[in-house]
């Protein structure tokens, strides 16, 4: 088994040509290179090869035991492991089972750092308000887990526009900018007009009344009048961090 | 009273023609063949004849006592009984009252298996992710309660497309395929393009943010670009299982 | 009949006390002070006294003839008349019937200017983009009709934030600021953070896709993180202008 | 540092011209006049100058400790402090830390009154029903915190129309009217037709069923057939009070 | 065939008892008493007996020819005929084919008046604005077709509240009140607080922006704080008129 | 003070004409006939005269103490009192304070029956499923409080259509029919096609997934293809009962 | 090339094993078995094998020329061709280019019938109203194109419930039932309670006001209280017909 | 004026220090470096410096003359010009006024190519269906205008999953992948699972019924279970192309 934990399908095909495998067995063996069904979960052994990163555990809608088991299984393969949306009970189970795992309760992340070559560039993570920090931390920790350096710029929403303007140089030094905002979600439009780098906008569910749990921010960001802005799901700090890392490491 | 627990209306009509019943009494007696009002509930004695299956207890919005009473009443008629959306308290009441009843807490089902002729074909129940399992189990147990054999294929969502592709032959051996998915609900479209059997799509409320409690998955499935796919209500595993059984036993 | 076109109800009460009117007649005469039913319309003769302004004709959902008739009737009372949402056909009918009426096709306004004491202060009307101009003109012309001086500041949306910043002094010289914006509707938040005057935000239906005909801008403005901002209906330039004038003339 | 707690940027520019500051240092010093980054929060020292009021603490989505810290920091600058959406736990923390702070649990407000010149005019705060009182109190206390006199008129909804009519004179004596209503949100339309002053409508989440948490009231107010009405976010008593004060003190 | 155009099922049952009909033929003959399949339409011959009124033609989504054919067929049975949502082309076809039919283009109604005993009481049809008149006329003409006297009260919306107040006595003389309003739909709440009769609220699609084609008015009416108000579909003047007549003739 | 607890305004007018009251005092005294401001609530003393019924306490969004106080105050005027949406704590407070008050926990109603002349006709209250009973009981108890006889017909939803058909004669004997249904809300359409009486449809929040808390049932009822059906708010049993009584007692 | 118009991939694999193809060429040749890129379209040659039916042309959002070209290309392969959502202009182009093609303008279908073995069972296509016929015809013609016999039952909506009841036997003789309905979409619930066969519900955009272009019917069907019902997209007659055929031919 | 068409603000600051400019003039001159107000439009001369690209003309909601004028003005500055959402009439005006401009009617783009250094990498533009081509072309032409090479892969939607799988190598050779899809919008999830590059998803308004003009696709993409996917507005091909170029040229 290779480092990524899978058999190379080319070896299967060669064994088949050499007659060491029947046609049916060859098909079955090729299948086996790609995934493994371990009961409630089908492990995607091939994801690292295809997408450059192993599986990440999404803890939402899962029991603490399911999260712990998945974390242990992935840690056993010798790489770093990242789990998001982890509640306190599940975090305790993982920390008990996996030495070296660290818990970031504000961001609801548990992770075991692996070895990665550091990226040459920086990712900026910007928040409109203090209440957006948990989502921003999910993004920032995801970036760091994936080997990136992060510059955090917090509480610079548009109602005091000089705050973000005074940070323009810091923004421009980053290669990718993640902007996290709730309420009207206007900050990405302003940032998008200030930098020449990709901007990833993360709407948060911060707000009340007609904020509708993040819909107002989401719509604001999708309709941004600035170019170079794209959007991920409401409160999806992980998605923004993952994508930022992918761009940053191109 | 017949095995299905109702009087045959033909007997009433014959008694009427023979003059043993007045016109008014005949109308009343015919009514009596079809249902029975027992206070808070009107039992539909005729459903088995009309639709091939007796009444199923939907436990949502009902008190534990109402669920228990209905279960006991239906069990007394000598057939199997199926109750869905049953909470822990109600389940305990039923198990205490009805020997032989079994509880599946993950699927929130309590059931008393009856005698049914086994179906000749298999139903496949496919899930996109581990979090969709409770709904899928509601579907699978419903199928089994109705006398079908079920093939479960779990955690084969579209982000690792080779997982479902490698199971294509298993899918094709089934006569009906139930696909359970949350988030973007894309799996039924892929399955619908792989098989020549009816596909029943079940959107789940798994997801967050703009998943909107299953609306994203529901819309995705209704707009499936694959033909041969139809949809049931969000989280409605029972409905999918019931329909799959009806098709499978045609 | 007074200048506002209505009888004074005090005169009625005095006539009644003096016995010149019966109880029933007094009630009826008081009614008559307030409105007049002229078939398809009930003219609100009392509105000027109660709210400081006469009736304005909303041309939407009305036939050209209905608009023309209402305009003529109000013009006959010797004051200025304002009609909004007037199509080309209706405008032509009014211009033919009322000498001195002027037509602003971009703003869809027809108006006959009346005599009003000029307001001491200025109202600023700011637009995010060129496409917002028709709604902004409806607001600005309404302000001018009501006797206010208007400062127009156009095409200063947040994607080029220095544009609005460089106009900050002009904004601060106004007593009320109307901000008109479509798409994500972020401009009022920035303006609200720059001035210490009331800001009236007008969402426009400018945009496409998830702009949803102005919903995105409306939600953005309702959730503005800046204080001192309130919102009127989508594309409701008239409402903003009317309110701005009311504040400006306090 | 001036009373408002910030350096005057003109001083910086003069120092720069005199050669006491390099170009880079001047830019940096100007920045410093406007805000201060203290970790999780960027204090907007310039807001008082720009908008006439210091920062207000929005307690929603914040931890009790964050609220307490922010309150203490702002109180230390010698002005009044206003915090909204403050829960019981956070309120206790603030009251313990800041002598003189007062807690209004119904309105979820904690505030430390500062010195302000009293406004010459009155603001009316009108509610449709008893259930709307908490939001109305948030508005009224905000007005009072900002130095205004408030006239409260409660429980005068449109189903008993004579209640509001009989208060028309009181309404007309106010310079600004705030109308707070849930359910169908019709009261602002009636009030808007009775007075010649600006009306600020606050939809509340009071209601059930198709009230949809305030959407019905919000839409009703946005579509008001009365002129001179504008709207703030659902349950946003603070926003209405702040804006009313801004208008009242023009 | 009786005047209502159907066979009496009692006659069938008697023929069956007398042995003149077999069991199967009796069932079939009873069916025949109730409806008739004439190709694209299944005529409901029994509706008059069950509900007191014959079928009404809903012209929406139908071709002019389908409307004409249905109108002719119903007119041939010797009663009055009512068709709603009839466009100009279909109206011309009907008028040509059915002498005595009358066309009301504003209300989009074509009808052939039948003989009905006049109702003892009056129905009031109230509109908030001139733009609501077409829907109100659909309601009023439906009432008149069904034999009721109608009192029309127009353009008395809540922004000039004295208009409706001055008509309170007229309202109270009616036995049922239909209130037709667009925009915020507040008028039914005020009327419901003035009378002790049933109020039927009809939301119209009049309005713009956040009126959302009548949704704002619909929600306003459903959430009316006045008791005694119920609601029909947006723009459904016919439904309101039909129900009002049913109540009025009790 | 009259039995309804208010002064007759005619007496005031006569005193004014006789010179016993000044003009200002007369206006004030007329006001006093209509309502009374008792702090957090404005009692509408005139509602009984205008609408035939006294005020009803809506307990939602109110504190237990507010409900108790209002109940005591209204009971003190010697009539019956009805309070809806009353929680257990508030109910206990009322029962302790008001002898004779009765509590219906399933319907969340507390009421003190008053003296009313019994209505000559019956109201039918029909439910689609057992889960709809609490809302139906709110409707039925409201009817009974207002002096009507109620016929309850339960659990006769459309999936077993013979259940409602067999009750058709009972339905037709009622003068008004209330139909309570959740899920798809189809029962009112079927009932509306069976009877010639007014049908009041009450959507309930019973259901799951795409039932969206009663929206599916609400839309179904608003779009009913049967004539003679109108709709009240989701779960608004009281509103349906109140309106039914108003019709029944015409 | 086989009758289905594709190369058999087993032949490729055998050629590869025999050394007649290199590894890279084999991969490429296998690809070629499955599809063909012809510019704006990628023909899915393998769909017939996978799903039992060839590609169907969805004419929506396509130009007349694109539809004609696709139709000609598929017809050239010697099988039947089905195109849906075809406008008049595109239909004329196809009829001119393909002899034997037939046009059904009401259903917006153009098709060239192919040879298929007739199915042993019947599919029932039921409509609630005359206005639903175009969608029902799309379903029925799709069934017939795929070799099924169709029983049409039209205009039997729930407001005259005896219409559908009298057709119960015909319904029960079908193996699959398609129910097409707009407005409240209640008919599938009634049908689902009458038969023991799969019911496919098709919501239509027929209706007005709160029908919201089919949303009311869609939600009604998704929440059907009858078991055995599944739903396809609004107005998706083709999807229902395709699925019904797939079930009917199992 | 520099090539980007603006004055360098450093020159202004130096002139100010040298005393050649007063404080007020310096502020004004700095302003002038950044933008220019030419009536209906405020040109953002500084955008090229800040964001790496000049202004792009969004033709939606603009008159043909406004589009032509803006195009001419930008072309006069000697760079390439891109205009999107250009109708036929506006395109003709531009082509007549600007030699060398080219019109792509399917993509609704008019552009004048400028000189740009070619990017070293390729951008893939993938479409799910033929109907998505116009939006995809808007994206592809935007990429090309900005100096990138584009690989188009068309009509490879998930219902025939082998189509996209067979193109996996081509996908992996791109540095950025744009995926354009309507209906259920599932294709980005599959692509995101196949590549290790950033994926930009563009929902299109292609579809019908519950596609709701692109909402279904938008929600599907926002909830993608694949990591590395972000989303732009519905039909926003330009936004995707602009962002892809920004990433590709990092």
Task: Offer a few descriptive terms.
homooctamer; 250 residues; alpha/beta; Rossmann fold; four-stranded mixed sheet; 11 helices; disordered N terminus
How is the secondary structure organized here?
The structure is a homooctamer of 250-residue chains.
Chain A: H1 9-17, H2 23-34, E1 36-37, E2 42-43, H3 47-51, E3 57-58, H4 64-75, E4 81-84, H5 88-97, E5 102-104, E6 109-112, E7 122-127, H6 133-145, E8 149-153, H7 162-165, H8 168-173, E9 176-181, H9 187-192, E10 199-203, H10 215-222, E11 229-231, H11 237-248
The CATH topology of the largest domain in chain A: Rossmann fold
Strand content of chain A: 15-25%
Ends distance of chain A: 28 Å
Overall spatial form of chain A: globular
| Proportion in helices of chain A | 25-40%
How many discrete domains of chain A? 3
Task: Please give the radius of gyration of chain A in angstroms.
Answer: 21 Å
Order of SSEs of chain A, N→C? HHEEHEHEHEEEHEHHEHEHEH
SS-based class of chain A: alpha/beta
Class of the largest domain in chain A, according to the CATH hierarchy?
A: Alpha Beta
Main sheet properties of chain A: 5 strands, parallel
Ranges of chain A with pLDDT <50 over ≥5 residues? 1-6
| Count of individual beta strands of chain A | 11
Q: For the residues shown, what is the average pLDDT of chain A? A: 86
Largest interface: A-C, 34 and 34 residues
Could you give the order of strands across the largest sheet of chain A? 8-7-9-10-11
Second-tier CATH architecture of the largest domain in chain A: 3-Layer(aba) Sandwich
């Amino acid at each position: 088994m290779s480092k990524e934990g899978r058999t190379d399908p080319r070896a299967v095909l060669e064994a088949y040509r050499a007659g060491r495998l029947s046609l049916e067995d060859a098909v079955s063996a090729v299948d086996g290179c790609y995934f493994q069904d371990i009961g409630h979960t089908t492990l995607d052994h091939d994801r690292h090869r295809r997408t450059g990163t192993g599986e990440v555990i999404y803890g939402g809608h899962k029991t603490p035991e399911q999260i712990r088991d998945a974390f242990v299984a992935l840690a056993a393969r010798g790489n770093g492991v990242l789990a998001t949306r982890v509640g306190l009970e599940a975090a305790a189970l993982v920390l008990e089972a996996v030495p070296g795992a660290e818990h970031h309760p504000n961001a609801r992340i548990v992770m075991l750092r692996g070895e990665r070559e550091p990226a040459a560039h920086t990712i900026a993570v910007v928040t409109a308000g203090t209440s957006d920090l948990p989502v921003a931390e999910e993004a920032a920790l995801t970036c760091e887990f994936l080997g990136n350096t992060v510059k955090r710029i917090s509480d610079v929403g548009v109602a005091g526009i000089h705050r973000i303007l005074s940070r323009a140089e810091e923004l421009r030094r980053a290669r990718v900018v993640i902007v996290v905002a709730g309420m009207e979600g206007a900050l990405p439009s302003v940032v998008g007009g200030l930098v020449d780098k990709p901007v990833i906008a993360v709407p948060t569910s911060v707000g009340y009344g007609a904020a509708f749990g993040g819909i107002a921010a989401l719509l604001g960001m999708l309709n941004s009048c600035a170019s170079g802005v794209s959007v991920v799901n409401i409160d999806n700090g992980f998605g923004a961090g993952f994508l930022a890392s992918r761009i940053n490491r191109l």
